[in-house]
Amino acid sequence: MSGAGRGVTPGAEPEAGSGESAASPEPDQGRPAGADNEAEASGPAEASGAPGAGADAGATDSPPDGNAASQSPKTAGQRPRRKRSFWREFPVMVVIALLLAVVIKTYAIQAFFIPSGSMENTLEVNDRVLVNKLVYDVRGIHRGDIVVFNGDGSWDPGTVPTDTNFLVKFGDGFASMFGFGHPGAILVKRVIGLPGDQVACCDAQGRVTVNGVPLTGQSYLYPGDAPSEIRFNISVPPGRLWVMGDHRLISDDSRSHQGDPGGGTVPESAVIGRAFVIIWPPSRWRFLPIPGTFEQPKLNAAAAAAGPPAALDTTDLLSARLEPSSPALPLALGFATAVPVTWLQRRARLRLGRRRAARRAARERGPGS
Description:
By secondary structure, the chain is α+β, with helices and mostly antiparallel strands. It contains 8 helices and 13 strands. It folds into 2 domains: about 60 residues, no CATH class; about 220 residues, Umud Fragment, subunit A, CATH 2.10.109.10. Strands 1, 2, 3, 4, 9, 10, 11, 12 and 13 form a 9-stranded antiparallel beta sheet that branches. A 4-stranded antiparallel beta sheet has the order 7-6-5-8, with no helix packed on it. Strand 11 and strand 12 form a beta hairpin. The N terminus is likely disordered.
């Protein structure tokens, strides 16, 4: 009866309980008998290492494990999301690269091929040059710049090019990337006179003058060429440019088109950009700076009095019509930009997916878990 009265857990040894009862025949005076019985009942069970107690402990620990296991996506029957294969994203990267290539070619940088010698020795036949299309959005055209421009409507039949909106430029650039559209008569020359300048040839030493200031061309003119064998004296109209080739003896430039609309000048709106570097062949690689003679402060002086232009023979002259180079460069730049962009967006998407999965798992566990 004493073992049953203590509430011994099944599997505990009654002898241990009896010995303990005999060792303390009387309960403490200050404690209730029920509390003593509870302490004695739990004491033998813990001391004896009864399997029932272990089972209870196991039962107590197992529910959290089971609950955690039930929250796992795999045990809940949810398939983990598979990462997208790189080859599934490759077409997206190609599209991004093409769009970037069109943007770079249309609005930033374009390569051109030099087919004639009218700009020798600065630019030689078969040179490839890069043209900066953004520079004149930042600064104005300078004397001495080598500019690429469209000759339609000034030196060639057609309509004078005008500034078009973003979408029209993008469409034209996309079409020209694949050989469609009308590129126009693309030419390259050096800027000699700006709007309002008085450009003349020649002074007593046979030099071209701008606003009465002589230009020394030894640093950029073709060796042995005179500054000009054609006499002219013109005041450059507003919004237009007077341009000449560096190989003056064979260059078809503003001097040869004085009878055309604009008196041989070309509109600023026809300028595509500034040639700033030779990229091919590697032996010819170099930047194209402005010669020092164009940096003279006196060039900005007031224009001198204009004189009538002289008639001239323009046969056997070269106009240095440019041909757009292959789209390999803008495509290479597009892919070079598209690869890291695609990789970054892939990482961002995976990171966002992990965060969403973690928040979803936290909501499913609930605040009390």
